[in-house]
Known about the structure:
Chain A is of the alpha/beta class. Helices cover 35% and strands 25% of the residues of chain A. In chain A, the strands form two sheets. Chain A has a six-stranded mixed β-sheet with strand order 6-7-8-3-9-10, with helices on both faces. In chain A, strand 1 and strand 2 form a beta hairpin. Chain B is mainly α. Chain B is 77% helix and 0% strand. The longest helix of chain B is centred in the first third of the chain and has 30 residues. The model of chain B has no long low-confidence stretch (mean pLDDT 89). The chains are: A alpha/beta, B mainly alpha. At the A-B interface, helix 2, strand 6, helix 3 and helix 5 of A face helix 1, helix 2 and helix 5 of B.
Amino acid sequence: MKNTIEVRGLRKSFKDTEVLKGVDFEVKRGEIFALLGSNGAGKTTVVRILTTLLQSDGGTAAVNGFDVASKPDQVRQTISLTGQFAAVDEILTGRENLIMIAKLRYLKNSRQVADDMLQRFGLTEAADRRVSTYSGGMRRRLDIALSLVGKPQIIFLDEPTTGLDPEARIEVWKIVKELADGGTTVLLTTQYLEEAEQLADRIAILHEGRIIASGTLQELKKMFPTTKVEYVEKQLSLEEIFLAIVGKKEAI
Amino acid sequence: METEIVKKHFFIDISVMLGRSMRHIMRSMDTIITVTITPIAMMLLFVYVLGGAIETGTDSYVNYLLPGILLMAIASGISYTAFRLFTDVQKGIFERFQTMPISRSALLWGHVLTSLVSNAISVLVIILVALLMGFRSSAGILPWLAVAGILALFTLSLTWVAAIAGLTAKTVDGASAFSYPLIFLPFISSAFVPTDSMPTAVRVFAENQPVTSIVETIRALLSGQPVGNDIWIALAWCVGIMLVAYVFAMRAYKKRV
């Protein structure tokens, strides 16, 4: 299978702090790849380099076969970024945001594209309200919708569920799964282990500037010494209880 | 080849950016009040309250005052350009644009174009109000075109100054604070009163700062008087400020993208 993203020996320092000390990983076409790490591990730095926002100090990174440093225009043709902070225009309405991005992608039927996206992301009712009145979950949905305008082949999601309530988080998970089912390659970063476990086909753990482990969940599990069998009474987590009460039973 | 595509769409890109920031302006009461209503209020105040006591040596004070009011309106208008540029660069939307296959400088040029268009609109509204207040001009089409050209050049040069502020400021206040001295410059010029009445030190400053030569040029053009050297001094100021500011603004922008 062909690699859509290839990262080799990627290094980056900010002033005296070495954030990335030689990062290697690859993402296969059509998979959901999770970059897992704690705050400050350098996940966002990796995403910023791959999306042409930042120059690396060393190593190589290629997206869709194009080097991000020397062919940024070609890279931008195939990617879309949903950053940590919602990249939406708060003064415009949801519909205007979508039409604006559709025009910037030079789509002919920008109104139709906007209508379809609003429908798909359950924003039709709020379409003509300014985004500043949207809830966090709606904003995130619009943010992802904007990233999907023009059907880019590769989507970068930088901590897509940080700051969202559990219901909104599950909605985002659903969207990400649908994307991958539709053949889009997804690279997402997260600090939530559960999120990586739920979504990712493969996971890489970024720690202190290096990938310390990567593989499928099964492979990662095998890397650790034989599983100890313990008998623990199954307790519902607070999240499960919350979701059960508010009626989102599909999560359990 | 891909770069060619990007270049071909440059005008689409900046027109989308223009549409976006014009919407921002139309939805911001604060902007409309500051850039249009405040200059009109100043004009009413000066003509109907203070004007009676001001000796300008002309029969119509509103004719005398209008050029200075227009420059004040533009100076406050461009502070909003700095503000909008600052907010864009700070927010996620800027990163979204930068990761899209659109022209790298579309966002910046979109703001520059918005500044020209929005200031032109507020200048037009102020002139219409001045007409209602008794402003009359004997100027023909060519002098009016010259006035429009000088105002556009003045807007453009201050817009690039605003771009530096918007791109390098650390806080929102810093981004727009630089324009306060610009708004006050017309007061220490021949915009409101002839410079003869000022103490020597103030007069020397007033007569040699850019606003006076621009005001004098526009006033002469509108009243059908010869413009003399003022027009060249005014043009030199505008072009000089614009070129220097453009270089620094572009450098600041390159650092951002």
